[in-house]
Write a structure and sequence with these properties.
9 helices, alpha+beta, 3-stranded parallel sheet, 13 strands
Length: 281
C-alpha cells in the first residue's frame, strides 16, 4: 500500500485489513507514506505497529510508492503479494475469498493466476474498479471495467491495481511495476506484462469492498489554458507516461493512439468554451 495525505482513509483501510476473518494466512503489511503532512505516518506507526512503515520522498505518486513497497516485500519469500489501495474499505471476508479463488484456479491448473477483487461504489453499489478488457480490439488502448460474475471467476485482459492478489512465483517472474508509470497505467501495464510472461488474470466473483471512483474532468469550468495544463498533468494524461504505454501496447500506429486523447479533449474544451462565450454574449 502507498498513501499520501489521506490519514483517516489510510487508517480505515488498514483497520479493515486487520479485521479480516477466517483467512488462515499470515499477513505482513508494507505501507509507504510518501511525505504526508497530515500525520499519516505517525498515525500508522501508532495504531498499526505491526505494519512495516516506509517513508517516501514526497514525489513517488502511486507507481513509485507501490514500487518501493514491492521492492521491500520481494526480499521475503511470500506465497502471495496483495496490492491494496488506501481508500478501500474491505469486506471482512475479502482476503478469504481472494485466497479461495486463487486455490480454485490452482486446482484447475492455473498456477500463475492473478486474482482481482472488484470494488463497488459505497452509495450506488455500481462496480468502480476491477478487471479491465477492450470492448473493441481496434481501440487498442481503451480498456473498460469488467462486471464480476456472481459465482465463478472470469478471465480478464488486465487490471486496476486497487485490490490484486499476485502469486509469489509470478510476481518475481514479472518483476516490479514499471518505473515509466508514475501515477497511471502501471497497473494495466503490469497485467498485460503478466499475461505476456505466461500468467493469467482473473476477476473473482462478486465485489470485495467499497471504493468510490475518481471524478471525471468537466470541461468549460476553468480557463482554457488551465484545462489544457490539467489534461497533461500526472493524474490525467502525462505525455511521457502515456507514450510509454501506447508505444508498448498499441502496435505500429501507437503515435495515433498517443495523440488521440489530447485531440478529443482539446475539441471538447474548445466546444464548451465556445458555448460559454455564446451564453455570456
Amino acid at each position: 500500500m502507498t498513501c499520501f495525505n489521506r490519514r483517516d482513509k489510510t487508517l480505515a483501510c488498514l483497520g479493515s485489513l486487520a479485521g479480516q476473518r477466517d483467512h488462515g494466512a499470515d499477513i505482513t503489511a508494507y505501507v509507504v507514506d510518501d511525505g504526508s503532512t497530515d500525520g499519516t505516518a505517525e498515525a500508522v506507526a501508532r495504531e498499526h505497529p505491526e505494519a512495516i512503515l516506509l517513508l517516501g520522498t514526497g514525489a513517488l505518486y502511486w507507481g513509485g510508492g507501490m514500487r518501493m513497497a514491492l521492492e521491500h516485500a520481494f526480499t521475503a519469500d511470500y506465497d502471495y503479494y496483495l496490492w491494496l489501495n488506501d481508500d478501500i474499505d474491505l469486506d471482512d471476508d475479502a482476503v478469504t475469498r481472494l485466497l479461495s479463488t486463487a486455490r480454485e484456479l490452482e486446482q484447475r491448473g492455473e498456477h500463475s493466476a492473478i486474482v482481482i477483487g472488484s470494488m463497488r461504489d459505497p452509495v450506488s453499489g455500481a462496480v468502480t474498479y476491477g478487471g479491465r478488457y477492450r470492448p473493441f480490439r481496434s481501440l487498442r488502448t481503451r480498456f473498460v471495467v469488467m462486471q464480476p460474475a456472481a459465482e465463478d471467476p472470469v478471465p480478464s485482459e488486465t487490471l486496476n491495481g486497487n485490490l490484486v492478489l499476485v502469486p509469489g512465483a509470478l510476481a518475481h517472474a514479472v518483476g516490479n511495476i514499471d518505473a515509466s508509470f508514475r501515477q497511471k497505467w502501471g497497473d494495466q501495464d503490469y497485467g498485460l506484462r503478466a499475461r505476456a510472461a505466461g500468467g493469467t488474470v482473473w476477476v473473482a466473483p462478486s465485489t470485495f469492498g467499497t471504493c468510490a471512483r475518481n471524478p471525471d474532468i468537466v470541461y468549460g469550468r476553468q480557463p482554457l489554458r488551465t484545462e489544457l495544463r490539467t489534461l497533461t498533468s500526472i493524474k490525467q494524461f502525462p505525455p511521457r507516461d502515456w507514450a510509454a504505454f501506447t508505444r508498448r501496447w498499441a502496435g505500429p500506429l501507437w503515435p495515433m493512439f498517443w495523440a488521440s486523447p489530447y485531440m478529443h479533449a482539446a475539441l471538447r474544451m474548445t466546444r464548451e468554451h465556445a458555448r460559454k462565450a455564446i451564453r455570456s454574449a
